[in-house]
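$ run holo --ligand "guanosine-5'-diphosphate" --emit tokens
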Amino acid sequence: MRIVALSGGVGGARFLRGLARATDPADVTVIGNVGDDVEILGMHVSPDLDSILYALGGVSDDERGWGRADESWTAFEEASRLGGESWFQLGDRDLGLHLVRTQRLAAGEPLSAVTADLARAFGVEAKLLPATDDRLRTWIDTPGASFPFQEWFVARRHRDEVDRVRFEGEDEARPAPGVIEAIEQAELIVICPSNPFISIWPILAVAEIRAAVERRRVPSVAVSPLIGGRAIKGPADRMLERLAGGTDPGRVAGCYADAIDVLVFDETDARFARNVEDRGVRPVVTQTLMRDAEAATALAAAVLAGV
Ligand code: GDP
Ligand code: CA
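-- output --
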């Protein structure tokens, strides 16, 4: 079955690792969020694409929860000592990738071409596409000020409440080559258990991507990133509470209006199935905590079985 999966970083990547085991990864095209992309020390960093690359390439650091395994920090420590930007940590191996990407982007190559080569280098069998090659950047409006995404997320540790999420460049952004074809040729669309507002919305902010998803003739399934109304990590629960009025699975389904037919959510929240149905979305209840690779594979299998 040909599958297209919309994904943010860590939560999405964990699920994708399961999906790549539950099905033939060669049948999977991942569309990754680039709203998080940021320039650090002159380098173009694509955190969500890299989380996917590292997870599917089998080189992610599962204990730290982000970045590469077997990482060292010599270059970063030296840059910090010399007064360089130090609010966004970059490991040595990670830096090597950013150097290659930045150099090729500066030479005029599109992000999608660079990403495809990196995926090959990491032995990733699934196809990984950035949502867009154009500049698309997430901004966070808070009561006090507006912040570029990473300044809010990393530097301020997402402590400010969020009034609104905006995507700079969304009016001009075109889908990267292959994105629309992948959606049109897919037999199943999956929205990974990522943060709806800051990982999935920036993908759907590309108008042609949203339109392609909305005119689908195949099922679209989202996996909720919340369990018992709480995010495993990160601000998804606080954002749902403030921006969607609550954290039950019905509110998660509401984030994906017109983009999904099915919502997979945790059995802890089974009593809220009616709220999902009220949105015109079919509820599928299962265990959604991806404790390890086996649990992620079981979740992916449940998603495939649920459609
Ligand atoms: P980011 O871009 O690195 O922030 O990652 P994503 O947006 O892809 O994923 C973040 C979301 O993943 C958070 O809201 C978490 O609640 C969710 N998440 C992480 N681990 C799990 C898990 O085991 N199960 C489920 N259902 N969600 C998870
Ligand atoms: Ca992200």
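-- notes --
The first strand starts at residue 3 and ends at 7.
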